[in-house]
Amino acid sequence: MNFNQVLLIVNPISGDLDKKQIIQQARDYAKTHQITIHLFATTGKEDVQKIQDRLKSLKIERIIAIGGDGTINLVAKAIKSYSIPLGIIPAGSANGLATNFGIPESIEEQVKIAFGDTIFEMDLLKMNDDICLHLSDFGVNAELIQNYEDSRFRGKFGYLLQSLPTLINSEYPFDFEVETNFKKRQTSGALLAIANANKYGTGANINPTGKMDDGKFEIIIYKKLDLVEIVKTVRNENDINSDVVETFQVKEAKITCKKPVAFQIDGEFKGESSEVKICIMDDKLKVVVPADFNSQASQA
After folding, report:
1. Is the pTM of this model over 0.70?
2. What residues contact 272, with CB distance under 8 A and at least 6 apart?
3. How do residues 64-85 score in pLDDT, each as one tens digit?
4. Per-residue model confidence (pLDDT) at position 234
5. For residue 268, what are the β-bridge partners?
């Protein structure tokens, strides 16, 4: 290891895991390798600025985030202009980014990977004034996330409880206009996803050919909710019926809705939106990944 100053960022209220146990394992690992840990707990108030203040006052060489996709997104906002690798210890209700990187469920292995040397430089998407790391969408999934956030049940069980009521009460299909390369197309569907990565935290692979470092992203439109096609995505099958699912790859796009539609970014409900502009950012995010993540990962 060629670093010895780590900022450990933890979201104390994400998911339903015991963060104290994870923090202690990270501290024990750091002590064994003569690494200094600086702890920062998010509060939901000016966290981005507070993290940046820490980076200015401390000689941080590695950041490790303990939390879900929303926490990782927040940390990415704070460090996107810094060339500091980010380790991920998934501990949220939704851990889609960790799923895409193949980070295992064992906390011991997660800690070892977060302190490791295999670095992957991933694209970041700019969405209006926000950023997206792996998946964003309009429609029924965003409605599900909204209902989940409003409920008192956490974890995957909480999502499961909200699934049927969401489908029953949703007013899909939704009408969209997709503008890319000065071309406009009108379409409608139950879900329109903007994908930088492949999978949701559930493991459903809605974008099997997407790459997180190719300078492009995919727009995926589920024109209707077809159970057979949904099962295919869960099984990672690629022969999706084009009458049900349409996918195209772009570098920038503008999505316009006839009326505001539920919208989420990286598992965080953003309200109802009627227009989103998306492009690839110049900044890259350095993420610490398992050594066998893929052949494109580089050694730090």
Report:
1. yes
2. 260, 261, 262, 263
3. 999 999 999 999 999 998 999 9
4. 45
5. 265
